[in-house]
From TrEMBL:
Annotated E3 Ubiquitin ligase MUL1-like domain residues: 119-271
Record has Cell membrane as a keyword: no
GO CC terms: membrane
Residue intervals passing through the bilayer: 24-47, 262-283
InterPro entries: MDM2_MDM4_MUL1 (IPR051652), MUL1-like (IPR022170)
GO molecular function, one term: zinc ion binding
Catalytic activity entry: S-ubiquitinyl-[E2 ubiquitin-conjugating enzyme]-L-cysteine + [acceptor protein]-L-lysine = [E2 ubiquitin-conjugating enzyme]-L-cysteine + N(6)-ubiquitinyl-[acceptor protein]-L-lysine
E.C. number(s) listed in UniProt: 2.3.2.27
Record's bilayer topology term: Multi-pass membrane protein
Keyword terms, alphabetized: Membrane, Metal-binding, Transferase, Transmembrane, Transmembrane helix, Ubl conjugation pathway, Zinc, Zinc-finger
Subcellular location: Membrane
GO biological process: protein ubiquitination
Organism: Channa striata (Snakehead murrel)
Protein name: RING-type E3 ubiquitin transferase
Length: 291
């Protein structure tokens, strides 16, 4: 069911409850009933969508950089797997990147960000408002591969092609600092003239660290009978890198589906309990009237 169609059905149901409220004379409780059932319908729709997404994810074949993957690729036409998940440990093909701020911390993808936090005086609201400017972001990467867990020295590995083109959460923040600006007499005078003042400078660094567990979703090809390569799929599906194991990735989606299922049950039971209470009171009033 499309969300637009679901919204229309919820509006129709809500109008029906408004009419019911008018007949019952307890509009506040009836609005609560209508809202509960409307939210139950919405949460059930989100649960079904998440369940479909989860089923599709579970249909994706999962491999590790080992002999089994190599045998499957050699047996496939064109020695290619169109869309699979590969889970392994990150290993730099050459010299890794050293963190600019953290000693003895190495990675294969590095992203540093520097942002200036400023405040400017608004004569309209007569307040200081915040904004960021002079933002600088630098990204670096070195070639890296995925190896099987526990096999840091191995002849079998999967090279990760063009990782910066992939989507997903594959960077971990290893450094963050907020440096507040010093307020001197000269700065105070300049602020009064320009109507702007520096507040702080924010620095952060993110890394895909060597030794991290990474799961990549994409196309795997075999080149030269030995070199396995993970790359962006040619059929238009998403090229994804996730800083987690495949099991943890699926567990997160299952937790999300369970949450929507629980909210559906909670709002449905709440609406049903309120409706049962109104019907019970109505029956009681009718019995009293007949007596």
């Amino acid at each position: 069911m499309h969300l637009g169609r679901l919204g229309k059905s919820c509006i129709v149901s809500f109008k029906g409850y408004v009419w019911f409220c008018h007949r019952m004379g307890d509009s506040l409780v009836c609005v609560g009933i209508g809202s509960s059932f409307a939210f139950a319908g919405l949460f059930y729709h989100l649960y079904q969508e998440k369940k479909k997404e989860l089923n599709k994810l579970k249909e994706i074949p999962v491999f590790k950089p080992d002999q089994h993957l190599l045998k499957v690729l050699k047996a496939c036409p064109h020695q290619r797997l169109q869309y699979v998940a590969v889970e392994g440990v990150v290993q730099a093909d050459g010299e890794p990147l050293a963190s600019q701020f953290v000693p003895r911390c190495f990675g294969v993808i590095q992203r540093t960000t520097v942002e200036e936090h400023w405040q400017y005086w608004s004569s309209f609201t007569e307040t200081w408002n915040s904004r960021k400017k002079n933002s600088k972001e630098t990204s670096n990467s070195v070639p890296f591969s995925l190896v099987s867990p526990g096999a840091y020295i191995s002849d079998l590995y999967v090279k990760v092609q063009n990782p910066l083109e992939a989507s997903g959460c594959y960077l971990e923040r290893v450094y963050h600092r907020l440096r507040h600006a010093e307020q001197g007499l000269v700065n105070v005078v300049l602020q009064g003239v320009s109507g702007e003042k520096p507040v702080a400078m924010e620095e952060s660094e993110q890394l895909l660290q060597v030794g991290s567990t990474l799961t990549g979703f994409g196309e795997v090809v075999l080149e030269g009978g030995q070199v396995m390569r993970l790359q962006a799929p040619k059929d238009g599906r998403k090229y994804i890198l996730m800083l987690t194991s495949y099991k943890s990735f699926i567990d997160r989606h299952e937790s999300s589906a369970t949450m929507w299922k629980g909210l559906t049950a909670l709002t449905g039971i709440t609406g049903s309990a309120l409706l049962a209470g109104i019907i019970y009171n109505l029956v009681g009033k009718q019995d009293d009237t007949s007596k």
